[in-house]
Amino acid sequence: MGRQANHSRREFLRKLGCSFACGSVASLVPQLAFLPRAMAQSAPGYKALVCIYLAGANDSYNWLVPRDSEAAGSRYDTYRSTRGGVYSASNTNGLALAYNELLPITPSNQSFGFGLHPSSTDFTATNGGASQAHSGIQTLFNSGKAAFVCNAGPLVQPITKAEYDAGAPRPPQLFSHNDQELQWHLGMSAGSHPMARYGWGGRVAKSTVSGSLPIALSPTISAAGSARFLIGDSIMPYQVSSAGVDLIDNYNATSATNYASARRAVLNDLLDESAAHPFLRAYGNTARRSLEVGEAIGALLDAPDGSGNVQAVFPTGNNLGEQLKMVARMIKVSRTLGATRQVYYVRMGSYDLHQGMFEAGGATASTGHGALLTTLNQALGAFWTALGEIGARSQVTTFTMSDFGRTLTGNGSGSDHAWGGNLLVVGDAVAGNKLYGTYPRLVVNSNDPANRDFSFSRGQYIPTTAVDQVAATLAKWMGVTDGAALGAIFPQLGNFATGDLGFMGA
């Protein structure tokens, strides 16, 4: 067999394997071989969650900063001092942002002002010959379309610094990227609990969908590869790329080119062939179903009339924006199929800035951490415009997650692994222009039980809001309103004072 034939065979197997991953991989397991073809969808109306995962740990205390005054003793002055002063050519170890660089916001439930990283401004996206103005995070927040949840992170139960020192229960493997990312995806830190087999997005999808769609499309969809967050009982995510569905070349059932229809007929015969072992039967069923879903979704996305596209202009070279554009397109076509509840996942990396938080001589908003936040701001702003175009702003809630917060003190040119951090929630259904949870005082070695403000030697803050509470608040908006059901999805939720943080409206 020649090199070209070998290459073609490998490519065929790769794409067929990808198609398996795009379908219900749970069906590969014998005991799940008899799951229904289609995921159920019957809850009234349409709602979707879109998770933007910021991999590597976003330094979110430079994303949302106190901005009351520069006077000695102010909250901003405390921040500036703790972070080693404002970064400059003469203070390259400083991690603080200058007061006048911060974009002012006035949260309606706070007694003093805050500022956002200068990357969070309005902008105009250009792509080819098209351009379009979009709102940035500052405008979304000030207009009540966005909120921040402060000092959130994985917890087993509320914990003070004294309790931590005494050995009270805490999440395993703190400060480890892989372990803490997993706990954000699980929505709990009890890895031994049966529910820990599934991500909280998958568990919410399982609890809010019933009925069936015309095609076997999973209610959880990733534009960023595999994600534990999306896996549920009998639910595995459907995967698309930023460019759409990656179909197997030359196996189109309706094309005679290069014997494509004949190839497909042979493939179908192979997949339909009876097998004695349940694993082999499940494998064939999964492959056949995945091919059918991919072809159906691909046809909708690439419809000649453009009905599977959006006209919003996303910035050129913005990978996160390309993922979110595909999410907007999938939402558009999914609603035509009758989908009512969906959970999406996109991902952006490179936030693990142990060095390079700032770059000498570089603009704050376009270099170092600022370049990452600008990418996020512009992807999110274009996505907001696209949601407006398809009339889905009240139906879609977008939120960020990240491994953990970062140390307030620097290490020379960056920050290190910590614990609690801030996350953003965006949507018409968000009770915006507010901060939820408790924004910390931003001091090193804080031990303030009265204000529940606790940090370690480098400003690693103990969270005061649990991932479980954030996730449960979003789950309730999706339709899981029964307390017992929420408790089943989030088994640690009863350890905390509330399962609804209040940042979601109707």
Report on this structure.
This protein is α/β, with parallel strands linked by helices and 506 residues long. It has one domain. It has 12 helices and 16 strands. Strands 1, 7, 8, 9, 10, 11, 12, 13 and 16 form a 9-stranded mixed β-sheet that branches. A 3-stranded antiparallel β-sheet has the order 2-4-3. The N and C termini lie far apart (62 Å). The model is unreliable at 18-43 (pLDDT under 50).
Number of helices: 12
* Domain unit count: 1
Mean pLDDT: 89
Q: Which spans of ≥5 residues are poorly predicted at pLDDT below 50?
A: 18-43
Structural class: alpha/beta
**Helix coverage percent of residues?**
25-40%
Strand content: 5-15%
Major sheet description: 9 strands, mixed
Instruction: For the record, give the distance between the C-alpha atoms at the N and C termini, rounded to a whole number.
Output: 62 Å
Shape designation = globular
- In N-to-C order, the SSE pattern is HEEHEEEEHEHHHEEHHHEHEEEEEEHH
Number of strands: 16
- How would you name the oligomeric state of the polypeptide chains in this document? single chain
Q: Over all CA atoms, what is the radius of gyration?
A: 24 Å
Defining key terms:
globular; 3-stranded antiparallel sheet; alpha/beta; 14% strand; 506 residues
Task: Describe the protein's topology.
Layout (H helix, E strand, L loop, with lengths): L2 H20 L24 E8 L9 E3 L8 H8 L20 E3 L8 E3 L6 E5 L2 E5 L2 H6 L3 E8 L7 H5 L11 H10 L13 H9 L11 E3 L15 E2 L20 H13 L5 H24 L17 H19 L3 E8 L20 H21 L6 E7 L18 E6 L8 E3 L9 E2 L4 E2 L10 E2 H12 L4 H7 L17
Parallel strand pairs: 1-10, 1-11, 7-13, 7-16, 8-9, 8-10
Antiparallel strand pairs: 2-4, 3-4, 5-6, 7-12, 11-12, 14-15
